[in-house]
Write a structure and sequence with these properties.
single chain, 258 residues, alpha/beta, 7-stranded mixed beta sheet, 3-stranded antiparallel beta sheet, 8 helices
Length: 258
């Protein structure tokens, strides 16, 4: 099963070290880690297992990672040092019950942005709901919620911090529910590109309900780590750059209860 990710496994893994990914990881940890201690977690669109490994370090009892890319899953298995984690090759848009379920929580780090329309996203949520315990929660890293995805991405191109210039998102063609986008990462000497979608926030919310997720739905505001954490190193104009970025952030954490 070949996907756009099979050919970019190594440079894609290198993305873990860029400031934008570190910022995303910090926000994901703040939102997710307190809820998964001792839990069975399903990691959809797990890639090479970046978040799967982190969730084990955040004291999850078990993590099952699912991805459509055989290359990514092979990389995840090669890196896996824990008997609490395993991987499955499958299409996350097709509702399927995975061994080990139902799960206490489901995580999707950049899962829903691969839905080209609301109908496909509803199927993703059906898959989430099918594998989630009653009262369990889905945590997703998604594009930032907006009803005007094209304008948001066009503005964001000009407002990201200068020291994040390795990664940028370009709006491409309009689609019925939002805009197609291209992510470019300049991981010298290679440049990595992959395509996905930024759909309207109302499409996400409707798809969650159509997919069976009837509980509380929250777009969790992103936060920047305190300066003393020194996650990125600090630059003289850092405060002004981050103030501009936080007006049009590139991502958000979506939390939906079953």
């Amino acid at each position: 099963m070949s996907t756009q990710y099979d050919a970019i496994v190594a440079p894609y893994k290198a993305l873990r070290q860029v400031p934008a990914k570190i910022f995303e990881t910090y926000n994901t940890q703040v939102a997710l880690a307190p809820h998964i201690q001792g839990a069975k977690v399903l990691d959809l669109a797990c890639g090479s297992g970046y978040y799967s490994q982190l969730m084990i370090s955040w004291d999850a009892a078990q993590v099952v990672g699912v991805d459509i890319s055989a290359g990514m899953v092979a990389a995840g298995k090669a890196d896996n040092k824990s008997d609490k984690m395993r991987f499955v090759i499958a299409d996350c848009t097709i509702p399927s019950q995975y061994d080990g379920g139902p799960f206490d929580d489901v995580f999707g780090g950049w899962l829903l942005n691969y839905a080209p329309d609301g109908a496909t996203m509803a199927d993703m949520f059906r898959n989430i709901c099918l594998n989630l315990k009653e009262g369990g929660r889905f945590f997703g890293v998604t594009p930032y919620p907006t009803e005007d995805p094209r304008r948001h991405n066009e503005t964001g191109l000009n407002s990201k911090p200068m020291f994040w210039d390795q990664v940028w998102i370009e709006p491409l063609s309009d689609v019925a529910d939002g805009v197609a986008t291209r992510v470019t990462a300049d991981m010298k000497p290679e440049k990595v590109q992959f395509n996905n979608y930024h759909l309207k926030s109302s499409v996400y919310e409707r798809a969650a309900r159509e997919g069976g997720m009837k509980g509380n739905l929250e777009w969790k505001p992103i936060i920047f780590p305190p300066k003393e954490s020194n996650l990125f190193g600090w630059k003289a104009n850092w405060d002004a750059e981050m103030e501009a970025y936080l007006k049009t952030p590139s991502f958000c954490i979506l939390i939906v209860e079953k």
